[in-house]
Write a structure and sequence with these properties.
With 325 residues, the protein is α/β, with parallel strands linked by helices. Helices cover 31% and strands 26% of the residues. Helix 2 crosses helix 12.
Length: 325
Amino acid sequence: MRAAFYEANGPAREVLKIGEVPTPEPGFGEVRVKLATSGVNPSDVKSRSGRTRKIAYPRVVPHSDGAGVIDRVGPGVLPGRVGERVWVWNAQWKRPFGTAAEYVCLPSHQAVKLPDDVGFEVGACLGIPALTASEAVALAGKIEGRPILVAGGAGAVAHYAIQFARMKGATVITTVSSPEKAAHARAAGAEHVIDYKREDVGARVKDITGGEGVAAVLEVDLSANAPLAPKVLAPHGRLVVYGTGPEATLEASWFLYNCIKVEFTLVYELEGEHRRRGLREVRDCLAAGTLQHTIARRLPLDRIAEAHELVEQGAVIGKVVIDLP
């Protein structure tokens, strides 16, 4: 089969290769998916570059998100799944073979039915961005009728988080860095948009909330934004962190005296009811057609290096999707 892969960490154009690799066969409890699309996430480009972790296998086919059709099942899987349209999650987490290929084999439960009226390009957006957003909003607690702050409102996760939070009745405040990103966040449902490059975020949040602060902050970069939390959170609020650099400094005494709950979540490691809850929410929203999805660019497999660079540079608003042959 044709696939993209790398055998060392480094810049996209230096290490990403396109070539023929063995077509996988499903093992016990697995399905094989003939992929139509593969989603590129920031974590994919960080892993390829070596910023977050060094390559752990002789060869890595990248990307955890994708969508396609089950064309073969292994022992222990109902034959009726053959022909099912699916989206997949965690395809390359702790495994060398992801979705930047014509086929991928993975445990049957990691291939989730995709409604017939939902495109494969949307299926490539769900595994990391939508499930992260669903879990982050759930961890924010009781937000109905209360204000929350979603950091980086034009990001893929934040775009879904704004929507999930609005569905739960929250008043959503978000931060952006340009007029184009502000428009994108408003289209998702954000009621208050703050340009953090030109405005004092803490002062604006206090003004919007009548001095009370927000019930929760959904944070994409704790390393950069930790000092902001005491300026925007109300007592007994929650700080939900789904992204951070290697270090962050919190004003611990303020968090203690204000009874702030800090929640860290990593979508790759969601377990049990946390994973099931997110899958149910995404399933129900897809069925109802209540989620907006933003596809920034669609590129063929042989332009995967360009796709990685677009994500790495933050050059687009929305998801970059690879179309498989």
